[in-house]
TrEMBL record:
The lineage of its organism: Eukaryota, Viridiplantae, Streptophyta, Embryophyta, Tracheophyta. It comes from Cannabis sativa (Hemp). This is Ureidoglycolate hydrolase. GO terms for molecular function: ureidoglycolate hydrolase activity; ureidoglycolate lyase activity. It comes from the Eukaryota. One of its GO terms (biological process) is allantoin catabolic process.
Length: 217
């Protein structure tokens, strides 16, 4: 083997060794990463009083009653409303992410009044901003849809239990995880906009906080 071949072989082996070292470092880094801590939350019974920070709980009223503050106060002004039934399967009592919609209120209810759960946090939209990077502040984030917000705080997450002839209305920007339930599958009616899940669906992943939530019920 001539000097050129030896030099080429050395360069090749050095490059391969460097790649192997990088792979080992990455495997060690990911392998040593601690598992997320599990936070157990006891569900709160959803009533108009307990849920008012996040939206409304709308219960059955007598036929003929006039519109009042007990009815859902909706904001559907940024698009075409969409009312539909969604079938959801296998939603265990845990969640590791949470979502908000900045442009619309949302109504959710189970068909048949069956029991279900919803993880929530108060809205954290930066309403007074002008959608400029300079308005982000220390904790601000700019969503893909352009609005500014602060991520939800782990200590502010709550879980609500909803059952019976009622539905919930989420205020604009209310963080929510669910519907979650014990049954194998459930059907829910959902009122939002036709493009909510396409252009107004901002999600925070709690792996960034090193936690997951478990509903203790």
């Amino acid at each position: 083997m001539d000097d050129y071949s030896v030099s080429s072989t050395i360069v090749f082996l050095s490059a391969k060794l460097s790649l192997l070292r990088q792979r080992v470092k990455m495997e060690n880094r990911f392998g040593s990463k601690p598992k997320p801590a599990t936070i157990k939350l006891k569900p709160i019974e959803a009533t108009p009083e307990t849920f008012q920070e996040f939206g409304q709980v709308v219960e059955a009223s007598d036929d003929g009653d006039l519109f009042s503050s007990k009815d859902a106060q909706l904001d559907l002004t940024h698009g075409i409303p969409r009312l539909y039934i969604m079938k959801i399967e296998k939603r265990p009592l845990e969640f590791a992410s949470i979502t908000h919609h900045a442009r619309v209120t949302q109504c959710l209810g189970s068909i048949g009044g069956h029991e279900w759960y919803l993880g929530v946090a108060r809205p954290s939209l930066l309403e007074n901003s002008n959608e400029s990077e300079s308005d982000l502040g220390k904790n601000g984030v700019k969503a893909l849809s352009g609005h500014l917000y602060e991520p939800p705080r782990v200590e502010e997450i709550r879980v609500f239990k909803i059952a019976g002839s009622k539905f919930i209305k989420l205020n604009r920007g209310t963080w929510h995880a669910g519907p979650i339930f014990k049954a194998e599958s459930m059907d829910f009616y959902n009122l939002e906009l036709t493009d909510t899940n396409l252009v107004d669906h901002t999600t925070h992943h709690f792996k960034e906080n090193g936690v997951v939530f478990f509903i203790d019920d």
